[in-house]
Amino acid sequence: MGCSAIVTTARKSPAKCLDTTHRRKEQAVQKETFDVPRKGDESGNNMIMKMRLSSGREIFGFATENTYGGEWDLGPTWTYLIAAEPTFLLDVGRRGNGGKLLDMIQCSGFDPYELELVVLSHGHEDHDGGLFELIERTGARIVAHEIYRRLIRPYPQKAPSEKKDFPAACWQCPMPESFWKKNCVQYHKERAGLAVDGLDVSGKNLADGISVFHVPGHSPDSLSFLIDKEAILVGDTILPGITPHPTREHAFSMTKDILGRYREADEIYGLRAYIRSLKRLKGIGEEMPGLTILPGHRLFYRDRWNWIDLETRTTELIEHHIQRCGDILQSLRGGPKRPEEIVEKCFEARLLKGFGSDMALNEVLSHCELLEISKDVVFGVDGRISATHRTGFESLIRDLG
User: Fold this and answer.
1) pLDDT for 11-60, tens place per residue?
2) Cα dist. 281→238, 278, 307 in Å?
3) Residue 181: its pLDDT value, please?
4) Neighbours of 139 (CB within 10 A)
5) pLDDT averaged over the chain?
6) Which of 31, 46, 280, 384 has a 20 to 30 Å separation from 18 between CA atoms?
7) In which band, very low, low, confident or very high, does the pLDDT at 70 lie, cut at 50, 70 and 90?
8) Where do the structural domains in the chain lie, given as residue ranges?
9) Pairing of strands 58-64, 304-305
10) Among the four given CATH numbers 1.20.120, 1.20.58, 3.90.105, 1.10.10, the one describing domain 322-399
11) Fold designation for 14-308
């Protein structure tokens, strides 16, 4: 969710790539092998990874730079090229990365100008920011969830006054005004004009052996892709080492008129939607132990590979959100508090630097929405939040399905 200046990069031939290093995954359950045709830095920036599944299908991973400055560091955005009919690219990284990404695709041995299809895991700028440049050069078709196609358009008559010219996806963005005024204006203008095919995920496959799952919560349009029952591309729904922030159900009140068939906020927004998505993915992990998880960030970070188990990681994330709800109630024992005061009680100071404070506030409000639904807190007219001395949140979360 941010932008950078356009960067152009000279095209390379595969012969100029760095030497290939054969690797074997660290987990015993991971049977696939992978190579590194091009090394990156300690965070993985500009790395190319090649994986061959036991089915014979190849997946290439490209670590595109994702630096916003300051203390906020998710690591590079990983985009993936999947050999299929047709071969498709999942995500494109931030704005300004289109040329670099084409160069990386060519370095992997594919002709990027023959790319036919780009699929999006979700509509955040660090995943679709490079779309305009890449499509302009290749003419590839864009596919995303139907919600994405609706949210990238502006609706001036429905938008809040300060975001009249911004698309619906941005009306509830947690980033501060100083950020989106500086970084997002041109990105949204470019994105709004793109032709996008809406993807129907109701039990259909994207291609032979590739199943699509709608997993809203982090973003209402989030998708995951199961490849040959051996690997799963999870976007930002599951990340190693960090917890993806959930959306807020409150966003639905502003967008429900443009989203078609969705009638309830928790179908696609908020912590309840996110927990349901985690449980759906956990079920896949239970059914198919040993799946290779390919996330949108931190596959490689701080000089190490971060291979995770789907069932284990989804369980950890669910427990994290239960713990966060408990921490919020604990912080309210001394009396009503403003959301910003709860943030200071529940997060370490180092996590609140730069944009971290905005992300933390969004997470607290998302959890407080659930706590209000479970009748554990009430919102006062003065904006302060009070505990009701109930603790129904854990039962609510565990019963979601």
Assistant:
1) 223 333 433 333 444 443 344 688 999 999 999 999 999 999 999 999 99
2) 9, 5, 16
3) 75
4) 10
5) 88
6) 31
7) low
8) 14-308, 322-399
9) unpaired
10) 1.10.10
11) Metallo-beta-lactamase; Chain A (3.60.15)
